[in-house]
Specification:
Elements: H1 7-30, E1 39-40, H2 42-49, H3 53-65, E2 69-71, E3 78-80, H4 82-92, H5 96-115, E4 118-125, E5 128-135, E6 150-152, H6 157-163, H7 168-174, E7 180-182, E8 189-191, H8 192-205, E9 208-211, E10 218-227, E11 230-240, H9 246-251, H10 253-266, H11 272-290
Antiparallel strand pairs: 1-3, 2-3, 4-5, 4-11, 5-6, 7-8, 9-10, 10-11
Helix pairs in contact: 1-3, 2-3, 5-10
């Protein structure tokens, strides 16, 4: 059908141009976030994007409503939201992640059958961690993360297992230099200095535990998985804290570490727990030979 005048076509062109401009501005705002600047202020966003503060605020609110940006009411900073992480998962599941998932799934199922608790696999994405695989418990009362679920790296056993493979300098960079970290499940503020002390124990023990940090009423134990590139993922066994107690978790430490070491070796890397175990065995043999 022919248009009655040229004005509507001009209006359409103008609307298309404004729409493209809005998309360009939104993408520019998302590009302000990086591993160096995982959280930023509204002023920093406006300066980076070349927008006035009111315009930047309007754009950020729109991104926030769709889950692409999150706002921390305590610090006033903005960071990337779960919608970005879900898109990132598409990329993560390609290539090496396909190999990781293929190798890991039988082991995750074996751990689930051993403990009858939910077993999941997590990877680090910026200052967050994403669940990329999950084998759910058969019990009626159970924990289920959900593939694609996003949590802060510093909260929960899986996050601490992932952080344990990083230096303090990398930790400072990833967490944006924040000195206080808010646990999602309880709103308790965790000091960065305390987290670093806890990570020392995680590095020594080769596993991490948590209770009520990322999810209220949940407890978990996790161990890191390595590849030739370094820290690759974390295996987490999680359940209701009333049943998945510290004693129950301690009982499966050998199987968890053996699983993490096996997957690491299949990926082409040595796991610190396996190296430590071989070293202890060598010392025992030497001691027996002397005696």
């Amino acid at each position: 059908m022919a248009r009655r005048s040229g004005a509507p076509a001009d209006n359409d062109a103008g609307m298309e141009e404004r729409g493209a401009q809005a998309i360009h501005r939104a993408l520019t705002i998302l590009e302000v976030f990086s591993t160096v600047n995982p959280s930023v202020t509204l002023t920093e966003i406006s300066e980076f994007a070349g927008l006035t503060v009111p315009t930047a605020h309007r754009m950020v609110r729109a991104l926030q409503s769709r889950g692409y940006v999150m706002h921390d009411p305590i610090t006033g900073h903005y960071s990337l939201g779960p919608s970005v992480m879900k898109l990132a998962q598409v990329v993560l599941l390609r290539g090496e992640q396909d190999k990781l998932l293929t190798l890991s799934m039988p082991h995750l199922e074996a751990l689930r059958d051993l403990t009858d608790e939910t077993v999941s696999l997590h990877v680090a994405v910026g200052s967050s961690r994403v669940c990329i695989a999950e084998v759910v418990s058969h019990q009626v009362v159970r924990m289920a993360m959900g593939v694609g679920r996003v949590f802060p790296l510093y909260a929960g056993a899986a996050g601490k297992a992932l952080l344990s493979g990083m230096s303090d300098e990398s930790l400072d960079e990833i967490l944006g230099g924040e000195t206080k970290l808010v646990l999602p499940a309880s709103s308790v503020v965790l000091a960065l200095s305390r987290l670093k002390r806890e990570l020392l124990s995680v590095r020594e023990d080769h596993y991490a535990t948590s209770e009520g940090e990322a999810v209220a009423g949940a407890a978990g134990i996790a161990a890191p998985v390595f590849s030739p590139r370094g820290m690759e993922a974390a295996i987490n066994i999680g359940g209701p804290a009333v049943r998945w107690t510290r004693a129950a978790m301690n009982a499966v430490v050998p199987q968890l570490l053996e699983t993490a070491a096996t997957i690491s070796e299949q990926l082409g890397a040595s796991h610190p727990a396996a190296i430590a175990r071989r070293g202890a065995a060598t010392k025992r043999r030497a001691a027996n030979a002397v005696s």
